[in-house]
UniProtKB/TrEMBL annotation:
Protein name per the record: ABC transporter ATP-binding protein
Gene3D superfamilies with a match to the protein in the record: P-loop containing nucleotide triphosphate hydrolases
SMART domains (alphabetical): AAA
Segments forming domain ABC transporter: 2-233
Top-level taxonomic group: Bacteria
Coiled coil feature spans: none
Species the sequence originates in: Virgibacillus byunsanensis
Keywords: ATP-binding, Nucleotide-binding, Transport
The keyword tRNA processing belongs to this UniProt entry's keyword annotation: no
Matches recorded under InterPro entries: AAA+_ATPase, ABC_transporter-like_ATP-bd, ABC_Transporter_VariousFunc, P-loop_NTPase
Organismal lineage: Bacteria, Bacillati, Bacillota, Bacilli, Bacillales
Amino acid sequence: MIEIKQVSKHFAGHRHAIDTLDFTIPDGKIVGFLGPNGAGKSTTIKMMTGILPIDEGSISINGFDIAKNTLEAKKIFGYVPDQPDMFLRLKGIEYLNFIGNIFEVPKDLLKKRIETLTQQFDIYNTLDDYIQTYSHGMRQKIIVTGVLLHDPNIWILDEPLTGLDPKSAFTLKEMMRNHAKAGNTVFFSSHGLEVVEQLCDIVAIINNGKLIFYGDMGEMREQFQSDQSLEQVFLELTTDE
């Protein structure tokens, strides 16, 4: 569970990037995080993961405050950033072993998970190549693989499907479903409204740093007295704002 309580963030010379954000991401659910470009999605996720400091309010990961109990919180979640261009001078296998060692995954288990996950994402045969030679999609796959190696309870994914081929995107979506069904938490941002509508149990919509909707599709239709698609409601909400 992720609890975001009255969180605000501002940058010098600008209005609030995030304005008193308050909602809970429960266990056993896939929560989709939507908003126009510049709405505050990545800023929120970077505060959730401890990359950016929180100016006001608090965020807890399974009861651990991300600001006060940073290491304990970071052991619980896996984070896929919006840009996969990291550790480019390492070979794929070097990167995965590095991540596995950080999270103290036993060697035999680490080897098994690397083999299983990289075969699922069709990058097993490229592990001896340098990441800088990978395409964008392959870099995305290696980052996702690294995130899953320590089998975290909570997945925090910023545009995780970007650049993935259809087969790998399907594989990741099935992993997300199974992870949530096992009682775990999946929180991901996306610009793909159809994917969110099909995949998510709960939708959170942010605009201008404020949460403007949080609930499931049934609640959305009830609130807006409409049978419109998520795309139509999203466009109306964000345009009005």
